[in-house]
Amino acid sequence: MTVSPERILKLCRVLKGFDPHEDLSLADYLKAIPRLSSLSDVPPGTPVLVRGDVDCKPGPQVGQEDIRLRSMKATLEFGKSRGWKQIVFGHLGRKQPDKPIGSLAKVAKRLGEILGCEVPLIEDWLDEATNSVKPQVNEKIAASASGSVLMLQNVRAYDVETVLWKAKEKALPDIAQKLAAVANSLAEKVASVYVNEALSAGSLDASSTIVPLAMKRVALGDYIAREFEGPMQECLQAQLVVFSGIKIDKLDDLDAMIARGTIRTIFSAGSLAMALKKADALLAGKDFCLGVTEDPAHKDKPYYIPPERIEQAKRMVQAGKKHGIEFVLPVDFKLADEGVVEKLQPGDQQFDVGPKTIALFERKISEFIEAHRGKSAVAFHNGVFGMFEDPKFEAGTKAFVAQLKRMKDSGIKVYVGGGEGGTALEKYGQPDWVTHCFTAGGTVLNALGAEPVPYLVALRAAAVGK
User: Fold this and answer.
1) For residue 89, which phi and psi values (nearest 5 degrees)?
2) What 3-state DSSP class applies to 412?
3) H or E stretch at 10
4) Contact 67, 439 (CB under 8 A)
5) What is the three-class DSSP state of 49?
6) Residue 83 zone, left/alpha/beta (φ > 0; ψ -120 to 50; rest)
7) 1: pLDDT confidence band, cut at 50, 70 and 90?
8) Rg of the Cα trace of the chain?
9) pLDDT at 248
10) What span, in angstroms and rounded, lies between the C-alpha atoms of 227 and 185?
């Protein structure tokens, strides 16, 4: 089976937002995509390409910084037991100017320790001049024994893997030609059966979004399917959400979650809170200075909040209050010099919430606990409250992790998004302080928010022939 550039172009236009995606729920996508068990009839010795969650830096011992690798174990054991030759591929980090791309050598070694077998790493596997897999790859797969697990070196070593990230609309036809060449070469020379077991790989990487189209059969891995079918479905029913962080585009996800009608309390900090704070003030006929985050001189910074995001926040606050949603926002802010203010000046930048906000958040959590005592309730926490990696600005995040435990101890189901939220839980708490912590941040927000998860769109397209 080969995939045409035209079919890839059609998918690329949807993934990039140039064409609308189908109006489908998360459940609709999951229903259309086969599960791992559907591949039970794949015979021993068959090469199977596994998009793995390999973006990690393992610590000295198994169990340290390798949770994503361990999440793949059941799927890879399933393939080993059936004698498949599994070829794991995925990314580690991203290319940076004047810096070598990270190697998966340590990742392959740790995966081998987890599985109890050697996992050879195949270097230099793609010819970028022709966008085709080099002959040595097929030779190594052919020479491997049934039940083997191999790994391809970091897919992001090759520009074609991330070519969709910043692609302009007019460039897509040419890009589709290159992507078709890579996808078809992988199907011909590596494997034509594909399993996605990379929950966190929610970017527009070719390995996740394009390669499935060239495959004869596709499936969701065991772990990723359970995450989508269980914890994420419960998060869709959350009454309380904690949304924070520096990425203002998370407003889109929060907007979609509000529209579902289950949320009653929203806690926010970081740039998200700044947008909501100013919106709330403007709706009351007042104003609120956001400091450097609204200064056009900083528009190239990740914390900058453009005027259109303030307008979006105004619509969200109006709609939220109309439906009885309470917005719990910071009332004081810690600045770079560790001073605490209740009003920001034009040159100010917040690095954490202040002590009054910490106390406010604790009081509001107490109110939520009392209001839901003896009832079924779900809370979803995403992000951190400031530059928590610096001890001077960790107080807000550290204090709120304790509030997660309070809710869990009171019978509330507490879910934590991956990324920084998961890092904070690991740093300031214990895994059993919450009901579940995801191994992915952005993917969870996609699933709960405004846009479908890119690889689910691709897998569905591959499965139903669209």
Assistant:
1) -140, 155
2) coil
3) helix 5-15
4) yes
5) strand
6) left
7) low
8) 23
9) 83
10) 31
Amino acid at 464: V
Q: Which two tokens stand for residue 459?
A: 């897998």
Hey, what amino acid is at 59? G
Predicted local distance difference test score (pLDDT) of residue 35: 98
Q: How far apart are CA 398 and CA 384, in angstroms?
A: 9
Which residues contact residue 41 at a Cβ distance below 8 angstroms, ignoring those fewer than 6 apart?
none
CB 286 within 8 A of CB 280: no
The answer for 95, left when phi > 0, alpha when psi is -120 to 50, beta otherwise, is beta
Helix (H, G, I), strand (E, B), or coil: what is residue 96?
strand
d(CA 194, CA 47): 9
Q: Which amino acid is at 428?
A: Y
Cα dihedral sign, 204-163-86-57: negative
pTM of the model: 0.88
Query: In degrees, to the nearest 5, what angle opens at C-alpha 263 toward C-alphas 249 and 362?
Result: 90
DSSP single-letter state for residue 99: B
pLDDT tens figures, 134-189: 999 999 999 999 999 999 999 999 999 999 999 999 999 999 999 999 999 999 99
